[in-house]
Amino acid sequence: MTAETSQTLDRGLRVLKLLADTDHGLTVTELSNKLGVNRTVVYRLLATLEQHALVRRDLGGRARVGLGVLRLGRQVHPLVREAALPALRALAEDIGATAHLTLVDGTEALAVAVVEPTWTDYHVAYRAGFRHALDRGAAGRAILAARQAPVGEPGYTLTHGELEAGACGAAAALVGVTGVEGSVGVVMLADAVPERVGPRVVDAAREVADALR
């Protein structure tokens, strides 16, 4: 901590991060041990966060992230989309295919930004707001693959016909972006993804990740 920072705010944010990393919630005692502060401090932090609906406590007394974080999260997508658009435009024009940025939303993949090429005779229509299971389509599969891959080793995922008959896709996960889990990809009407597309998608994902850091 420095003279310019708030210890109380820092502790409150640490509480939220700890709760966000668990599916079953944490007790006051568990939070006290993890934070290295006494239970009275934790009670005060939780009471304040509850007032803002950022934390809720169940009947068993376990604290969990509250629905108030959703109101904050809604403002994230426009910021992420704006940062990603230059790289997506370049990717769509270069490959001649629809480019997209997809983020994890619960158990689904959610397209938050889509750019279509301007010079092709036809391309796949893909809309922002489109959702699909994480284990279907290149965008979701790339995210799942990144969860298992060594840190800092980006790769790409190819699929064919999983979301739309006759369409194939390529996607690469965003790497090294704190608090954002997603992928950058393209979708095209083709029998197979051209060889150069995979590495180009990896480059675009790296550009987006750099823009978000």
Number of strands: 8
CATH level-1 class of the largest domain: Alpha Beta
The name of the CATH architecture of the largest domain is: 2-Layer Sandwich
CATH topology of the largest domain: Beta-Lactamase
Largest sheet: 6 strands, antiparallel
Order of helices and strands: HHHEEHHEEEHEEEH
- The average pLDDT value, as a whole number, equals 91
| Unreliable stretches | none
Lateral strand order in the biggest sheet: 5-4-3-8-7-6
Query: With helices defined by DSSP (H or I, 4 residues minimum), what is the helix count?
Result: 7
- The rounded Rg comes to 20 Å
Q: Helix share of residues? A: 40-55%
Q: Give the overall silhouette.
A: elongated
Q: Count the domains.
A: 2
**Structural class computed from helices and strand pairing:** alpha+beta
Amount of beta strand: 15-25%
Assign the CATH superfamily of the largest domain. GAF domain
Distance between the termini: 22 Å
Describe the structure.
With 213 residues, the chain is α+β, with helices and mostly antiparallel strands. The chain folds into two domains: 7-65, Orthogonal Bundle (Arc Repressor Mutant, subunit A); 73-212, 2-Layer Sandwich (Beta-Lactamase). 41% of the residues lie in helices and 21% in strands. It has seven helices and eight strands, in the order H-H-H-E-E-H-H-E-E-E-H-E-E-E-H. It has helices at 7-20, 28-35, 39-51, 68-73, 76-95, 138-148, 197-212, and strands at 55-57, 63-65, 98-105, 108-115, 131-133, 157-160, 167-173, 182-189. The strands form two sheets. Strands 5-4-3-8-7-6 form a six-stranded antiparallel sheet. Strands 1-2 form a two-stranded antiparallel sheet. A hairpin with a 5-residue loop joins strand 1 (55-57) and strand 2. Helix 2 packs across helix 3 and helix 5 runs antiparallel to helix 7. The longest helix has 20 residues, at 76-95.
